[in-house]
């Protein structure tokens, strides 16, 4: 196989997932090239792939990144048919630095200078107080601990009850933001992160997602 020494725009990196946003990328949001519906938040405590260590671990802080396509994590700006990027001329910091033949540059910025939701939401926006309440009432760290215990075969009623309680609050707060605050449904993954019922389903706890129908 021929060694790669420059970008041939094969799309391999795009298919592995969208980039994490850094402060330098805020100008793309301000310029309207990227919008909230293009993003997803990985909350502190949620499982996330760490490229520096080469494995899954709990996120040590909040991460805002480009969302995938449906159930797929491949970057939503990547067009597989045309092998093209919709924002190539104004691509994100991580995309500009990533060179598959030499990862030194991208490794230097991973986990550094990344943004939080509050960095790109207008000051005084009431949704910030909802986000803060959601973080307190539906903590991702506790959720991960409970999911891990349940996935390990723990049928403890207290664990299941607490999972039901947190999932119920998660559903309720998302519904409130959409119906009462006028939040666009497509902004939900950015504002609240991934639905907690989906996190359980991804861990093989599909039966527990029935709790959603009980709240």
Question: Mind explaining what this structure looks like?
Answer:
It is a single chain. The protein is α+β, with helices and mostly antiparallel strands and 215 residues long. It has two domains: 107 residues, no CATH class; 93 residues. Helix content is 36%, strand content 9%. It contains nine helices and six strands; from the N terminus they run H-H-E-E-E-E-E-E-H-H-H-H-H-H-H. Strands 1-4 form a two-stranded antiparallel sheet. Strand 5 and strand 6 form a beta hairpin. Helix 5 runs antiparallel to helix 7. It starts with 11 loop residues before the first helix and ends in a 13-residue tail after the last helix. 23% of the residues are buried.
- Tally of helical runs: 9
User: Low-confidence runs (pLDDT<50, min 5 residues)?
Assistant: 207-215
Number of strands: 6
β-strand amount: 5-15%
Alpha-carbon distance between the termini? 55 Å
List the helices and strands in order. HHEEEEEEHHHHHHH
The Rg value, from CA coordinates, equals 19 Å
Oligomer: single chain
**Fraction of helical residues:** 25-40%
The residue-averaged pLDDT reads 87
Q: Note the main sheet.
A: 2 strands, antiparallel
Q: Output the strand order for the largest sheet.
A: 1-4
Structural class from helices and strands? alpha+beta
* General form: globular
Number of domains: 2
Q: What is this structure's SSE topology?
A:
Blueprint: H1 12-15, H2 26-30, E1 39-42, E2 47-50, E3 55-58, E4 63-66, E5 78-79, E6 84-85, H3 93-97, H4 104-109, H5 127-137, H6 140-151, H7 157-179, H8 188-192, H9 196-202
Helix pairs in contact: 5-7, 6-7
């Amino acid at each position: 196989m021929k060694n790669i020494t420059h970008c041939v725009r094969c799309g391999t990196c795009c298919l592995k997932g969208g980039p994490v946003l850094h402060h330098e990328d805020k100008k793309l949001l301000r310029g309207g090239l990227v919008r909230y519906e293009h993003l997803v938040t990985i909350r502190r405590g949620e499982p996330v792939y760490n490229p520096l260590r080469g494995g899954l671990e709990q996120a040590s802080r909040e991460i805002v990144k480009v969302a995938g396509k449906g159930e797929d994590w491949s970057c939503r700006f990547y067009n597989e048919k045309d092998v093209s990027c919709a924002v190539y001329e104004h691509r994100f910091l991580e995309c500009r630095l990533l060179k598959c033949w030499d990862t030194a540059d991208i490794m230097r910025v991973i986990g550094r200078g990344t943004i939080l939701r509050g960095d790109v939401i207008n000051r005084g926006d009431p949704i910030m107080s909802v986000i803060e309440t959601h973080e307190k009432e539906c903590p991702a760290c506790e959720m991960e601990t409970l999911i891990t215990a349940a996935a390990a075969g723990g049928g403890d009623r207290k664990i299941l009850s607490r999972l039901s309680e947190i999932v119920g609050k998660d559903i309720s707060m998302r519904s409130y933001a959409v119906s009462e605050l006028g939040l666009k449904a497509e902004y939900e993954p950015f504002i609240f992160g991934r639905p907690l019922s989906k996190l359980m389903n991804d861990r093989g706890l599909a039966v527990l997602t029935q709790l959603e129908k009980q709240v």
